[in-house]
Amino acid sequence: MSKVIGIDLGTTNSCVAVMEGGEAVVIPNAEGNRTTPSVVAFSKTGERMVGQVAKRQAITNPERTISSIKREMGTDHRVTIDGKSYTPQEISAMILQKLKADAEAYLGTTVTEAVITVPAYFTDSQRQATKDAGKIAGLDVKRIINEPTAAALAYGVDKEQAQKIMVYDLGGGTFDVSILEIDDGVIEVLATAGNNRLGGDDFDQCIMKYLVSEFKKSDGIDLSGDKVAMQRLKEAAEKAKIELSGVTTSNINLPYITADATGPKHLDVTLTRAKFNELTGHLVEATMGPVRQAMSDAGLKPSDLAKVLMVGGSSRIPAVVEAVKSFTGSEPFKGINPDECVAMGAALQAGVLTGDVKGLLLLDVTPLSLGIETMGGVCTRLIERNTTIPVKKSQIFSTAADNQTSVEVNVLQGEREMAAANKSLGRFHLDGIAPARRGVPQIEVTFDIDANGIVNVSAKDLGTGNAQHITITSSSNMSKEDIEKAVKEAEQYAAEDAKIKEKVEVRNQADQMVYQAEKTLNEVGDKVPESEKEPIKAGVEKLKETLKGEDTDAIKAATEELTQLFYKMSEKLYQQQMKLKEHKLPVLVLFEGWGASGKGTTIGRVIKYIDPRFFKVATMSKPTEDELRRPFLYRYFNQIPEAGKFTFLDSGWMEQTCKDCLNGLEEEDYAKRIDSIKHFERQLTDNGYLVLKFFMQIDKKEQTRRIEKLNKEQDTKWRVDAFDKWQNEHYKHCQKVFDRYLTDTNTSIAPWYIIDAKDRNFVELQVLEIMVNNIEVALQNSTHSAPLLPNIFPLEKMPKLSEIELTDKVIEDEEYKKELKHLQKKLGELHNRLYRKRVPVIITYEGWDAAGKGGNIKRITEALDPRGFEVHPIASPEPHEKARHYLWRFWTRLPKDGHIAIFDRTWYGRVMVERLEGFCSENDWKRAYNEINEFEKELSDWGAVIIKFWVQIDKDTQLARFTDRQNNPEKQWKITDEDWRNREKWDAYEGAVDEMLAKTSTAYAPWHILESVDKKYARIKALKIVIKELEKALERT
């Protein structure tokens, strides 16, 4: 499982941490520092810089350097560089990408998930903007948490004694204060307050204004209009602020700050701490208002606080420390690093989400009240500030006028009584209300705040069932007039610019099209019929003639005409995408071939004709350590596309198998591998997948030429790996292995297409033509059913459910307790040996509702090391699971070798629930018996111990247990309407189960019946069976 990192995305500096060995560890950046400046810059040549390197050049490049972008999150602020406009989210994403890259370099693996902190007083739009920045940076943001809360996590993770603390967080651009209670692993936020526009930058500004004023007095020059000078003053002010935290005076000496007719001018000012305190006293006092408010909201006195944590670089300012000390009456706690503790807290929360950190619970709050505008412009609050999140609250409202058929819901955030005085997060309409007198319709408004503090609001007419909802995704600090003005200006600018820009772009595109067409016609030679080339030649000549003139529209038309002729094939592929989506046809395209044959280049050329929302490209390089500990096909099953989409694989199961053959794969293992691959490809095609396999062929001479060319250039040298060179040196030997594999896996349902890859442009035409033709055929055949194959696996005879004797399967309490203790101890010892021997174990549970599966699983897991097993409760498939092969969600949950996976409900849902409820076709469930046997054989050949349990009870026992659950308030959550509905179909399910047991109880994965009228008996029997099967497996290794 990949690591989830914790990120403190700061105004001035950012920091990233991760859980290692049960502790939060700060990750140093590429420069060796533990924090990274939140600065982005663009060089004159357009090169992007992030972090220390960006900050270093800010003085000489102030107009192209962006800092403190966090202050603009959630607004419509834009930064324009070289004519391109960037949102605050995009700039923040650049910083996040830098932190992500540093984390990946440190961990040696790809990082895709993160917990990111935000100021506690960030509004909903600012939180959503932060999440969007993470997404742009390639991070799935698992949780947004408040910075003071993260600091408290870092402080309180090992605190057992109950205590109340204050976190005073004064960062570069924002200020927050939170009051929290820590008690035995539970960290609960009691209240929070703050100011999103107050931070260390404001202290720097005070010093800068003072320096500008002093210089004007002494030299008569106003530096405020000089951007380079102001950037130097900014850096000097920040440096002086930091120095004054440790000494009482700081000398600010900036030679050659500017010049006039008399020559260069120098700035030399000594700033005392006393003067600094005088300049910034109003800022320190501005932080104390929120402190008093948070204490009041929490209902606490300063004497109730056990500790005050100072967080953020600016919390080191002596006047700040003194103000906090004066208010609380105690010395602030200095046992945590104010620059790093927030990132460490985020890493701890990431650990909680991944299960690496146990016994820690975070209860955060919403910083501002939320409500809607009601009649008379009043703000009616549904959720009060400092309410613990996640939270969901509803309230019934009605119409304000007779026969009103529509209402507008204005979502508000703030503490004022009137709507106009609060911040509007968004508006939406609920239409279709049945006409009635005012006050009669019942409209339920629901606010739902998730754990990230992001707001979802819905309104539902309880009479008609009509509903509307809004997710607050963005907001603006500009007024409506300001926005309209900005839009008009942008439109005016765009109209003027478009005329000039269009002429240049149209001519460039035309020139490029002429060049591309002529080049391709020359290269393909006689490989393409003359009848197909003639229209393109005519189109080229027409466009050349048109380019001699200045008519932009005529050039555009001629270019379009040639494009249509030249890319007729690609157009067809693009059009097919909609059909793919409509018919839910998934396409898996595998590119194999010689090193340097152009697999990556060809994929790049093909995908430009496909909507990027409909494809994924995966480079299947060397398997990771984790992948090597799972079945061979695991990493490939992981990559199969959703229905209606493409997956392109740059190398795959052929390359890995051939490499293994070249490294001495045994003949028996090769034969098993080939069978597995053919089963895999057939299962995909039987389940509606189109599998296209291309082998890129070049001869040894061409390969040698390409490798030499790639090695000459520093920028392309990396593309040649050791295996490419080895292939080239042992070309004939590799050719024999490749030929054998291609012959062994060339089937009618997934044939190989050998592509002559010497001519790169011709490769593109070949691949496009094959893809288009195959997709056309697949779409026509999409409704055809796959043939049912006879079973070839040895089966064990199973009794019918009605034949199983249940009455005498009981055990006394004393014997149960004694057996349980003995067996669990033995199982724990076996688990340890299994791990050391690297034996994977898969235990599956199917059975009647209320048969006791959960209790049975519990008695097994109690004996196991929690680091070595995972329980998978399988519910109805999620949309992304439904969109793939039905076994995909089980392949992706398989354990590593040495680990145990326990499935509560399994792949057998295909031949039970999906069969009886009509969720799949008759052909699908009948075919599944063989597919499941193949799947389990694959796991058995890998070395897995497969233990399958059917938990059996009779109909009367089930009814008694259902009734008990229904009548017991503590157990009512266990019984659902679906359970009662399934019970009504008992006979149908019994018949399906009898067939399932008869057709899938194989010698390598037999079924075991657990008679569970007495749950204790079933638990002991399960433990004995598991122990017996594990002992047998250990004897074999």
The overall pLDDT, averaged over residues, is: 85
**Cα-based radius of gyration, to the nearest Å:** 34 Å
Count of helical segments?
Answer: 33
Extract low-pLDDT stretches: 473-491
Beta-strand content estimate: 15-25%
Given the helix and strand composition, which structural class is it? alpha/beta
Rounded to the nearest angstrom, the distance between the terminal CA atoms is 27 Å
Biggest sheet descriptor: 6 strands, mixed
Number of strands: 37
Basic shape: globular
Roughly what percent helix?
40-55%
Which short descriptors sum up this protein?
six-stranded mixed beta sheet, 37 strands, 22% strand
Task: Give a written overview of the molecule.
The chain is an alpha/beta fold and 1037 residues long. The protein is built from 33 helices and 37 strands. The strands form 9 sheets. Strands 1, 2, 3, 4, 10 and 11 form a 6-stranded mixed beta sheet that branches. Strands 17-12-13-14-18-21 form a 6-stranded mixed beta sheet, with helices on both faces. A hairpin with a 2-residue loop joins strand 8 and strand 9 (84-86). It is globular.
Short note summarizing the structure:
This protein is of the alpha/beta class.
How is the secondary structure organized here?
Layout: E1 4-8, E2 13-20, E3 23-26, E4 36-37, E5 39-42, E6 48-50, H1 52-56, E7 65-67, E8 79-81, E9 84-86, H2 88-107, E10 113-118, H3 124-136, E11 140-146, H4 147-156, E12 163-170, E13 175-183, E14 186-195, H5 200-219, H6 227-243, E15 249-260, E16 263-272, H7 273-298, E17 307-311, H8 318-328, H9 341-354, E18 361-366, E19 370-374, E20 378-383, E21 387-389, E22 391-397, E23 407-413, E24 423-430, E25 443-449, E26 455-461, E27 467-471, H10 480-524, H11 530-547, H12 552-566, H13 568-583, E28 587-593, H14 599-607, E29 615-619, H15 625-628, H16 634-637, E30 646-650, H17 653-662, H18 667-686, E31 690-697, H19 700-712, H20 714-717, H21 722-729, H22 731-744, E32 752-756, H23 760-780, H24 813-837, E33 841-847, H25 853-861, E34 869-873, H26 879-882, H27 888-891, E35 900-904, H28 913-916, H29 922-942, E36 945-952, H30 955-967, H31 977-984, H32 986-1000, E37 1007-1011, H33 1015-1036
Parallel strand pairs: 1-10, 10-11, 12-17, 14-18, 28-30, 28-31, 29-30, 31-32, 33-35, 33-36, 34-35, 36-37
Antiparallel strand pairs: 1-2, 2-3, 2-4, 5-6, 5-7, 8-9, 12-13, 13-14, 15-16, 18-21, 19-20, 19-23, 22-25, 23-24, 25-26, 26-27
Helix pairs in contact: 2-3, 4-9, 5-6, 5-7, 7-8, 10-11, 10-12, 11-12, 13-23, 14-23, 17-22, 18-29, 24-33, 25-33
